Amino acid sequence: MRLAMIGKSFPTLIGGIEFHQTQLAAELRHLGHEVEEFAQLPSRISSATTFDWVVYEGIHRRNLLIGTILKPFPAKRTAVFTHGSFYETGHIAELRRIGYPYSPMSFWSRRLFDTFLMPTILGGTNLIITLAPQESTDIMNLFTGLSTPIESLPNFWAGPASDSPEPVVPELSSFKPYIVAVSRVDPRKNLAAVVQAIDGLRVNLVLAGPDGGALPSLTREVARLGSSNFRYLGPVDEVTKRSLIENSSALILPSFFEGASFAALEALAMGKPVISTSRSYLGEMSRVFLCSPEPGSIRTTIEHVLNLKELPVAPKVPSANETAVTFLKLLDAAE
Question: What is the pTM of this model?
Fold first, then answer.
């Protein structure tokens, strides 16, 4: 089978969508399929190049609009991985009640696009793939009358890139115990609430990831509290990221909402507990402890996890191979 996979890329971070595309494409090649990856739609492509499937990774509205109307890719069928992209649209009233700092202009431009153009775009595809049954339900509620098949395919963890020993970040050797957040620092991630939550607790917070616009306000909050139990490392490579998780007491995802975090699945595969927002598509999983975005709820959940004498049985995290095999079955069924 010949596939084109089209995603979007951030110059400072390999995010969940990029990681999903890269790892799934690698596994599909391993299974004998031909896959070409694109960070964005090319301006032109040879008319002789025909794909069995064009797969869009994430709801990149410009890519979807151009791809479904101008159809630069000669292909038999089209599929879309939604990656939780419609959570904000479907739950905006609830998110605003809990203090989500959304941008009205940005939100309403997307909402208008989704109201007038997205039904036609999604209706013109052959398959929509979500992270969880709840996301499928959210999409059906947003786009009533949609006839395109919607299937759920849980996120996966591809395993470490190498078998090399996990190093300890030197400056953190005396900083334990710590919880770790691996995240772009933007307002949706709600990281200042964790700084407030751990104030006075005997646990530290390590944050790794590039600034997405919220680092200055986070730094001001740390200064206001006089916090000495916080370290910001900036962007880190994959080996360092694995080391940070491996040496932590837990991974934390305090966001106002999430999809199905790769970092969370990686932590679970390492046997670590995950403290996560209850507003996500991770679903009910062992060793995932849910909280609301308020500092009090985050603090209570952190204390509960740190005081556990024994963790629940580790969940089974799908592998890249299992996900690729199931993905191919979904494509076959949609033909």
Answer: 0.90
Task: Name the CATH code of domain 170-306 (choices 2.60.40.1120, 3.40.50.2000, 3.30.450.40, 3.40.1170.60).
Answer: 3.40.50.2000
DSSP letter for 307, please: T
Before 170, cis peptide (omega within 30)?
no
* CA dist list (Å): 130 to 20, 262, 264: 13, 15, 17
Distance CA 90, CA 316 (A): 29
* Sequence ranges of the chain with CATH classification 3.40.50.2000: 2-156+320-334, 170-306
CB 217 within 8 A of CB 243: no
H helix or E strand, kind and range, residue 232: strand 230-234
Average pLDDT over residues 324-330: 98
Which position has the token pair 């679970």?
268
pLDDT at 76: 84
Architecture of domain 2-156+320-334: 3-Layer(aba) Sandwich (3.40)
Q: How many CB atoms lie within 10 A of CB 113?
A: 17
pLDDT tens by residue, 214-259:
999 999 999 999 999 999 999 998 889 989 999 999 999 999 999 8
Nearest-angstrom CA–CA distance, 268 and 253? 13
Where is pLDDT greater, at 282 or 182? 182
Residue 320 to residue 267: CA distance in whole angstroms: 16
Helices and strands of the chain, counted as H and E runs: 13, 12
> What tens digit of pLDDT does each residue of 71-121 get?
777 778 999 999 999 999 999 999 999 999 988 998 999 999 999 999 999
- Whether the CB-CB separation of 254 and 286 falls below 8 Å is answered with no
Helices (H), 235-319: 238-246, 262-269, 295-306
> Where is pLDDT greater, at 169 or 293?
293
